[in-house]
Specification:
This protein starts with 5 loop residues before the first strand and ends in a 19-residue tail after the last helix. It contains 19 helices and twelve strands. Helix content is 61%, strand content 9%. By secondary structure, the chain is of the alpha+beta class.
Length: 605
């Protein structure tokens, strides 16, 4: 139930064995190396090739980031030498292409802005050159207050032209007329000087042709980039991975302590792998090495669960990795989270949909595969609860009048009873939720008792955690008539809490009730889900049975959208409420967390 047992070791060997030891440790992937600390022995230096490797890998990563994801890979792979020799040339080539794309993109944006401006003037019965005015006439394009213009300016002094989204006023160039026109302009369209004469529509077509040519050039350059990516990106990624391994090994001595003739490396390995490491190190150094166990603090944490519990470790990590000396709660989450999630979703149909959704997500997003596996397991539990509740997308799945019977007329499911009808058992659902809370919270106290017992002894376990059990039993006795025994137990448990946890323990007493009552949210989600489904059925059933094709189609559309919405709500609430009850209520009774993840040298690659 606890994390994998770790042992701290120190490895001492002559300096001429340094490279062999680094290679051996990298191959074993067992030792979580600690940074060297101390003033007596200085820290080691990286191997001489580290700087050059680091520079090369920076260049390669930069080049990879500039190349698009290839739609298909080249069948020819380049060796490391080819990649290193070609990297600088490729970098320059890619940068030049990207600069050209950026320049062309700017041109395209400017042309697009110009086209949008000109399109506002479509329909104006003027040529483009007329908008520049003449020696005696001025012209303004934009949004105009035409009512004000009509009132304040004589019709003989101006002429108004209306376009698609803007107006143009041509006016006599006299000071008072120009001032009046300018006072009526609400927003002005700035028109560039262009070497063009003729209708505005013709200019728009010309600019669209120019933009199309620019976009064709952009596509050519993007195709050029894609061709480079197809030929080189796969090899660059492979080279980056290989060089990352070499850099990690080349920089490993930085974490070692060194003297003129020897070096020392310290770190943690799984205790059960100690003999394997010793044997390997002796083999590669011809026995010129000394591996010693030593005392250490704050060992890294590695889970030690079976394959069925492993996916639920990801849910523990969402909170915090357990500390080394406490119970790993992953197995508790494995045992109880699917029950909570399954009860809140509690439907065969919604369970099947959620299972399929999490399966697809697992395939599409490999990095989240463990979380998705845990949710698939929980979705399977919701299908089982669906059989208990006898529901399929909210419809009755078994007994008389089940959805299969309604749709097909078959009585095959009529004799299967509904084990627990949610619609008539709302009170029992809430009682069951509170009972689940009582069990779950006390499971947390029991886990805390075990942690205290294994780390601090039985006395501390009884005082700080056992006192909570005594308090609950005493309250039960007092409530059921054994007042003297109950009150005596309550006083005793409070005294024990004070000694075991200080004043904090007494202050936390009211939280016991609030923790347990918090589990009523399970029942609330179950009941609310049933209400949502009834509302959906109330909306759609009249439409589906109307006899009209149009209303039936409309009813089916509403039904589908409604079920998608309810599925999302059930999954979201099932996850959030289920995981919250673990993190906030149960973990609050025992969990410390804050463990450092076990990261053995070499395992990253």
């Amino acid at each position: 139930m606890k994390p994998l047992e770790m042992t701290k070791i120190s490895i001492t060997a002559p300096k001429n064995q340094l490279r062999r030891v680094v290679e051996g440790l990298y191959e074993l992937q067992l030792m979580d190396i600690e940074d060297h600390e101390g003033d007596v022995i200085e820290s080691g230096k990286p191997f001489e090739e580290a700087e050059q490797l680091s520079e090369t890998i920076v260049d390669i990563r930069s080049l990879i980031s500039k190349l698009p994801e290839q739609d298909k890979q080249s069948t020819q792979t380049k060796d490391l030498g080819q990649v290193q020799n070609k990297a600088t040339e490729l970098e320059e080539r890619v940068e030049n292409i990207q600069k050209k794309i950026d320049s062309l993109s700017n041109q395209s944006e400017k042309l697009d802005d110009r086209i949008k401006t000109l399109e506002k003037l479509e329909g104006i019965d003027l040529n483009y050159e007329d908008l520049s005015g003449t020696q005696n006439l001025g012209a303004v394009a934009g949004d105009l207050d035409t009512e004000k213009l009509k009132k304040e300016c004589s019709e003989d002094d101006y002429k108004l032209f209306k376009g698609k989204k803007a107006k143009v006023v041509v006016y006599r160039k006299e000071k008072d007329v120009e001032e009046t026109v300018n006072s009526c302009v609400e927003s002005r369209i700035s028109l560039p000087e262009l070497d063009y004469e003729g209708p505005i529509e013709g200019l728009i077509d010309k600019k669209k042709e120019e933009k199309q040519k620019v976009e064709d050039q952009i596509r050519e350059k993007e195709d050029e980039l894609m061709n480079i990516s197809r030929e080189w990106r796969g090899s660059l990624v492979t080279a980056e991975e290989f060089l990352s391994q070499k850099v990690e090994k080349a920089e490993a001595p930085i974490n070692f302590g060194t003297t003129e003739n020897a070096f020392i490396a310290k770190g943690w390995i799984p205790s059960k792998k100690l003999d394997e490491l010793k044997e390997k190190m002796c083999d590669i150094t011809d026995g010129k090495i000394y591996v010693e166990e030593e005392e250490g603090e704050n060992p890294p944490v590695e889970y030690d669960n079976g394959s069925i519990v492993e996916p639920f470790e990801s849910l523990t990590d969402l909170m915090s990795r357990p500390s080394y000396n406490e119970v790993d709660p992953s197995i508790i989450i494995f045992a109880t989270f699917p029950i909570f999630f399954g009860a809140m979703v509690g439907d065969i149909g919604y369970g099947l949909v959620s299972f399929a959704a999490f399966y697809i997500a697992m395939k599409k997003i490999p990095s989240s595969s463990m979380v998705m596996k845990s949710m698939m397991f929980s979705s399977a539990a919701s299908i089982l609860f669906g059989f208990v509740f006898g529901e399929f997308f909210g419809y009755k799945a078994f007994s008389s009048g089940n959805i299969f019977q309604v749709l097909t007329g078959s009585n095959i499911l009529e004799n299967i009873p509904v084990l627990f009808d949610k619609s008539v058992n709302a009170k029992n659902i809430l009682y069951a939720s509170a009972a689940a809370g009582l069990v779950h919270v006390n499971l947390g106290y029991l886990t805390g008792f075990y942690n205290k017992y294994t780390n601090q002894g039985i006395s501390e376990a009884i005082l700080s955690k056992g006192s909570w059990f005594i308090l609950q039993v005493s309250v039960f006795l007092a409530a059921t008539g054994s007042m003297v025994s109950g009150l005596t137990g309550i006083v005793s448990s409070i005294a024990m809490m004070t000694k075991g946890n200080g004043v904090k323990g007494v202050v936390m007493i009211p939280t016991l009730l609030t923790r347990i009552l918090s589990y009523l949210r399970i029942g609330a989600v179950i009941i609310a889900g049933g209400v949502l489904i009834k509302v959906l059925m109330g909306m759609t059933n009249p439409l589906l049975t109307s006899g009209s094709i149009i209303t039936t189609i409309f009813g089916i559309a509403i039904l589908l959208v409604g079920h998608v919405f309810i599925t999302m709500i059930k999954i979201l609430q099932g996850f959030l409420q289920g995981i919250r009850l673990h993190y906030a209520e149960m973990f609050g009774t025992f969990y410390e967390g804050g463990g450092k993840k076990y990261a053995p040298f070499g395992a990253q690659h």
